[in-house]
Protein: Cupin 4
Organism: mine drainage metagenome
Amino acid sequence: MPKKPAQPRASNSQSAQPRPAKPRAHARPAAPALEVNASNGMPLGMPPSRFLTQYWQKHPLLIRGALAGWQVPITPEDLAGLACEETVLARIVHRERKRASWTLQPGPYSEATFTGLPERDWTLLVQDVDKWDAEVACLLDFVRFLPTWRIDDVMVSYATDGGGVGPHIDQYDVFLVQGIGRRRWSINTERNAPRALRPGTDLKLLAEFAPTHSFALEPGDVLYLPPDVPHDGVAEGACMTFSIGMRAPAESELLLDLAEHLAEQIPDTQRYSDPDLRPARARGLIDSAVLARVRAQLGPFAQRIKAGELALWFGRMITRYRSAALIAGNGQPASLEQVRAMLLSGRALLRHPFARFAWIEHGAEGASLFAAGHMVHCPRALAEALCANARIEPDDAVLRDGSALTALRDLLAVGCVQFARAPRKRA
Ligand code: SIN
Ligand code: CO
């Protein structure tokens, strides 16, 4: 007999106070099965709605036989031919087993490129093959349950034995369809798996990779990987893999595009205005009234931006705005000792004539000083002095503070201030 579901019961008896629930360890829902078999009419091995709820953007899934019987529409030779076209985006990655390293051989390629390749340990990857080959585009039918605008492309790779691009993570969801031959995929499903990159390589490879799972994919098998899962695919014999990649704009790209879109609708005549301006308390100061005007002028777009962030952005923006010259440092940042020595030798400091300066006060003593889009923290006295004077003498009291010297060193490095020529010796 089915049990009646337990109902919370109201009680009017004082002795029957509800007992506080025992604190329970916050249990994370167990990951669903990593491997399933596709079946007739269910290439995902489950209805798309279940795939989307349980796996999409959450967990990897290996679907055995998802595209069983699929006839691969292009040959490795077709792919190499495509990679020789100027407008096609292609890469060859070589693996050096002994050093466990991978190198990129950039295109353009010619027939000779392919005849000169070694027997093993390399892979050719060609992007956007669905745009060049209508039959490859048909593979996108596999993801017809996804919005079309979310799909990026079908990238096709041909790998010789041992070939692969090395352990890495992708920023996008991907369906890795095994077309020809066999490829071993190793993945790490741990949330806190190391994700630091190897230094000094064009390929964004992981510095450390310790797989938690490894499986060989045969033709027709599909491995779905959400973004940010460390993975590595190594060919076991020559093989071809078709990667259906998704696209998802970065938040920064969304914001930038929205800002541009909104900006296009604002007439040029609508500008920063300050009919309520009062005499300046100090030269170059960006005070709270300025920031309030900027915030009001930007409307709802700026309402959620913290005061400090708005101030930092405005200081950098307004000192960069409409600058007629590009200010560059000499590329050799001086040490504090060198700056000190130059001042002791009597060299004055000159503002770069094209550098605009402004500052924001922090309490009674501190300041953020902006110069041509750069920002340094410094004593208020230095900020005021640099905004008010194009030249500061080496013995000026504003230069005595240690943090003033640090700020000066940074401004010298970007070219916003320079040392004047050495004073002429008196005859
Ligand atoms: C491939 O080698 O075909 C796919 C590379 C990847 O994104 O892991
Ligand atoms: Co990848």
